[in-house]
């Protein structure tokens, strides 16, 4: 997209001299056709990105419904978690009660055994047979039986309590295991929802940014086409101040370097210093102090002196025979549209306007609407 934008900006900077209206109009019309073609291509890309945004939006809403379902699952898991925690607390209380009863019954049994031990080895039979009469015999028999039954009951209760204690302990362990599993499930589901939500938001935001950048590039192409049409209108309807009807002026003696300085970014492919993308550089950059005089590389007619978006303050000169030169990023302009200039005449001063990272001159040479290496015609 940025490459298309660069091409669009370059195309708006190629008007040829009003002194050669036929070549100027022919060149501009060719550039207009290229711009229209690029505009149509961008319209297609824009439709594609809009369709992609629509698809992503539909998928986003579908994912939102899935996330709602996942959140319901998470709420259900948390409810099970609370239920398990409550059951765990109840089991713990039951186990504490059982342990207390078991401790009390065990103590009671030990007291009874201690009493029997202190009374010696006299058994239940000796107690009954030691009765002095029948009534005493019956009373002792009933008493002994009651004691024996109570002992058996106590023993059975202790055994039952131990079984209950063991079952409750197992249930407690199962509850702890289930609780731990539910906690892990809730944590995993929460993370899943967070990751899915962030991914969808990032995808939608990326598509929106892509659409915005393509819309901006499309608008630049529209403006480029309008700029070409305005220059075409001026060349075909407004007579030039130099007469414009004379013969084509042939180049003689070649081009001169517009200003002295250090050659930096050369003609060809490079990584753009501002956008960071690989783009074709259609000129030669010459670093020089701000305010350094820029001179016309050859004689010709100024066809543009003003602001040209990425190039900032710019001068364009048509030299005839299909040649046009461009001087970009100037700090000030010393000539005006339609003015005739001579080779070596001051036309501007070095600056850093437009898309620039420091004071320098961007010098381009175009032949029949196409950029060529400025150093090959100097």
H-E order: HHHHEEEEEEEEEEEE
So what's the overall shape? Answer: rod-shaped
Uncertain segments: 1-20, 237-253
Helix proportion: 55-70%
Count of DSSP helices? Answer: 4
Structural class: alpha+beta
End-to-end CA span = 32 Å
Q: What is the total tally of β strands?
A: 12
Count of individual domains: 2
Q: What value does the average pLDDT take?
A: 72
Q: Report the sheet-strand fraction.
A: 15-25%
Largest sheet: 10 strands, antiparallel
**Structural Rg:** 49 Å
Q: Can you give keywords for this protein?
A:
Glucose Permease (Domain IIA), 2 domains, single chain, two-stranded antiparallel sheet, 378 residues, disordered N terminus, 10-stranded antiparallel β-sheet, 4 helices, alpha+beta, 16% strand
Describe this structure in a few short sentences.
By secondary structure, the chain is an alpha+beta fold.
Fold and architecture overview:
- This protein is 58% helix and 16% strand.
- It contains 4 helices and 12 strands.
- Strand 2 and strand 3 (278-281) form a beta hairpin.
- It is of the alpha+beta class.
- The protein folds into 2 domains: 20-239; 245-378, Glucose Permease (Domain IIA).
- The longest helix has 104 residues, at 134-237.
- Helix 2 (21-118) runs antiparallel to helix 4.
Topology:
Elements: H1 2-11, H2 21-118, H3 124-129, H4 134-237, E1 262-263, E2 268-271, E3 278-281, E4 284-287, E5 293-295, E6 300-307, E7 313-320, E8 323-333, E9 340-341, E10 346-350, E11 360-367, E12 370-372
Antiparallel strand pairs: 1-4, 2-3, 4-11, 5-10, 6-7, 6-9, 7-8, 8-10, 8-11, 11-12
Helix pairs in contact: 1-4, 2-4
């Amino acid at each position: 997209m940025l490459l298309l934008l660069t091409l669009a900006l370059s195309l708006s900077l190629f008007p040829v001299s009003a002194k050669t209206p036929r070549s100027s109009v022919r060149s501009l019309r060719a550039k207009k056709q290229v711009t229209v073609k690029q505009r149509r291509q961008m319209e297609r890309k824009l439709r594609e990105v809009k369709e992609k945004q629509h698809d992503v939006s539909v998928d986003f809403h579908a994912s939102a419904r899935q996330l709602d379902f996942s959140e319901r699952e998470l709420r259900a898991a948390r409810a099970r978690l609370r239920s398990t925690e409550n059951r765990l607390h109840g089991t713990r209380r039951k186990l504490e009660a059982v342990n207390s009863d078991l401790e009390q019954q065990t103590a009671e049994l030990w007291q009874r055994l201690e009493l029997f031990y202190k009374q010696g080895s006299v058994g239940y039979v000796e107690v009954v047979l030691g009765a002095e009469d029948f009534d005493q015999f019956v009373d002792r028999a009933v008493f002994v039986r009651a004691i024996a039954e109570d002992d058996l009951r106590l023993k059975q209760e202790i055994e039952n309590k131990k079984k209950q204690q063991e079952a409750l302990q197992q249930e407690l362990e199962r509850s702890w295991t289930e609780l731990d599993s539910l906690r892990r499930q809730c944590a995993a589901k929460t993370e899943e929802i967070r990751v899915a939500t962030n991914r969808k938001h990032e995808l939608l935001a990326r598509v929106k940014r892509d659409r915005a950048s393509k819309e901006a590039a499309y608008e630049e192409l529209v403006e480029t086409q309008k700029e070409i049409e305005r220059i075409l209108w001026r060349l075909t309807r407004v007579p030039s101040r130099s007469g414009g009807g004379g013969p084509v002026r042939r180049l003689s003696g070649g081009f001169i370097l517009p200003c002295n300085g250090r050659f930096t970014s050369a003609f060809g492919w490079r990584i753009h210093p501002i956008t960071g993308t690989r783009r074709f550089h259609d000129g030669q950059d010459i670093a020089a102090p701000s305010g350094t005089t820029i001179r016309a590389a050859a004689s010709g007619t100024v066809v543009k002196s003003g602001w040209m978006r990425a190039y900032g303050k710019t001068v364009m000169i048509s030299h005839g025979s299909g040649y046009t030169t461009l001087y970009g990023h100037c700090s000030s302009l010393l000539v005006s549209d339609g003015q005739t200039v001579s080779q070596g005449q001051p036309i501007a001063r070095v600056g850093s306007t437009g898309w620039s990272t420091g004071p320098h001159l961007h010098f381009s040479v175009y032949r029949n609407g196409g950029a060529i290496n400025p150093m090959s015609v100097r």
